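Blinded run. Sample ID left blank on purpose so nobody reads anything into the name before looking at the predicted structure. Input follows.
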Amino acid sequence: MGFVSNQSAFGRRPQAQPSLPQGDVLGTYETYPEAQAVVDRLSKAEFEVKQLAIVGNDLKTVERVTGKLTYGRAAATGAASGAWFGLFFGVLLFLFSTTPQIGFVAAAALIGAGFGMLFGIVSYSMGRRRRDFTSTHQVLASSYQIIIDPQLTAKAQQLLDRPENSSV
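Blinded prediction complete.
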């Protein structure tokens, strides 16, 4: 299928080198869930799906702006992430302490929130005027192709041509 592997010097399993899968195009789909549904259908028909690959074509990066970044928002976001980090350490202290006290957890969460808030404010003030908004990033494809080993194309097509409710 176009995956090149090399034997490791330490006897570990061979690692696949990144390469584009080679073979026939079983189908092209507008969305990933459509391509995934075809692979799932073949899997349910006991087809060896290890011989398939879903390839996204014409990749695009999409950044969706979610809001304006302010000192208040930077402080709140920093405090929230710091509190989670502090909570994690508080639970560790609680679990591994010889005299566990629930106060460890609360204190660690509060200290984490405080440091997170300070870090959020300092980070925002240092980067201000370069980026005053929040956003999310996605990598999207224009289309998705299912690539298959050419020796198995006819069998896969035959399975896909069957009505979904028929037995295998």
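Unblinding after everyone has recorded impressions. The chain has two domains: 17-59+141-161, 64-138.
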